[in-house]
Amino acid sequence: MINSDTTIRDIKAKIPDNIWSQDPDIIAPYLSEWRGRWHGKTPMILRPRTAQDIADIVKICAQYKTPITVQGGNTGLVGGQIPEGEILLSTQYLNQIRSTSVNNMSMVCEAGVTLENAQIAADDIGLKFPLSLASQDACTIGGNLSTNAGGVHVLKYGTAKELVFGVEAVLANGEIFHGLTDLRKDNTGYNLSNILLGAEGTLGIITAASLKLFPKPTETIRVMAAIKTPQHALELLSCVRIGNHLSMFEIMPALGLEYITTHIPNMRDPFTENHPWYVIFDWEFSDQKDPQNFAESALGNAMEKGLILDAVIAANESQSNALLALRENLSAAQKPIGATIKHDITVPVSDVATFIQKANAAVLKHTPDCHPLPFGHLGDGNIHYNIGQPENLTGEQFMALEPDINDIVYDIVDALCGSISAEHGIGILKKNQLAKRADPAKLGMMKRIKTSLDPDGILNPRNIL
Fold this sequence. Notes:
Helix content is about 35%, strand content about 20%. By secondary structure, it is of the alpha+beta class. It folds into four domains: about 5-95, Uridine Diphospho-n-acetylenolpyruvylglucosamine Reductase, domain 2, CATH 3.30.43.10; about 95-215, Uridine Diphospho-n-acetylenolpyruvylglucosamine Reductase, domain 3 (2-Layer Sandwich); about 220-330, Alpha-Beta Plaits; about 340-440, Alpha-Beta Plaits (2-Layer Sandwich). The strands form five sheets. It has a five-stranded antiparallel beta sheet with strand order 5-6-10-8-9. Strands 1-2-4-3 form a four-stranded mixed beta sheet. Helix 1 packs antiparallel against helix 3 (about 50-65), helix 8 (about 230-240) runs antiparallel to helix 13 and helix 13 runs antiparallel to helix 15. The chain is globular and about 70 Å long.
């Protein structure tokens, strides 16, 4: 790293002692992501408490052209948060909720606030922050916005970037961009906050955000339905998408439910018989006179059409949480089965069933006896397409096939006019695939923006490009 020793000396001299550390024991937990795929190294960890702290740090790094890797809750799945020799800056201690406003239906959170705490703060004032992820007890607002996180409620509320009025961020020269606002209309030129959303920390370090809040539904009804095929799931989606009530629609195969009930404690199958596929969906109500009758009527209609084999309606909050846990524990349930090649793709909603059929056939032809596991956000076209190792290969042998399997899957995605990254980002994992598949004009624009805002390439220098 260029002048890193000088940078470290100046940081130690100019930054409070409680912000920096070179203690290997303190640093160690920040150097591995939760799946154990990436293991990094850094000469120093910085854990600033304010945006000004970060600005002071970045000015020193900019002076010596020393790269920085920025990390939020360390829940990312594409390796972008793990340093490989760069100085590591964690935003975990920027964890204050600066303000909430019922009238503006907004809340200002610092980057290190966990998503769960943001949800609780919104709930405390009678409103809802609808971003919802399985990792919400650990992932942070800064990371959610930097990766444009999706989650289970995109169907109704949109991705993270659609839930933000504006952000505060430290730029590559150490300037603080003051983009926090509660304004719903502002046409004074470019929307500069939006440029930083989904940029994975390559254009600026998000330090705080003004988040959009929504009215809380008076009642939510959660259903888990057994179905025959993904095509039936698509038809069911159209059948139950009535008014503006549907807020979640998730799909999972029988294999996923088997993994969960086998490997996750206290998880049980809510059905008495096995079925090929399952969907879990929510209806939210604020003004419906009889939500239960609405739900029973809609499900009865779907059953008459032959779209549902069986269904379970959560009778209380405990049952509702148990049904959602079957979906949210899918990633954790795959860890004990061995190596897994994972994809986070999106295609037009109408093509989800086609994608699953084509991808399953193609990967099984390439690697017989592997275990395809498509699941996720069917309601917005985002499928997590994971493939477990076959019993006749070691984990190392199977992961050696990853480049070829990636190309097989992504070629199908391209043919369906989809995207190789729906909500996890590009990071390190998909950088080469982006270079290979993205529109050249898009790549050129991205590179020019990066060069303009970070000419020395010090912010998350190994991400995306």
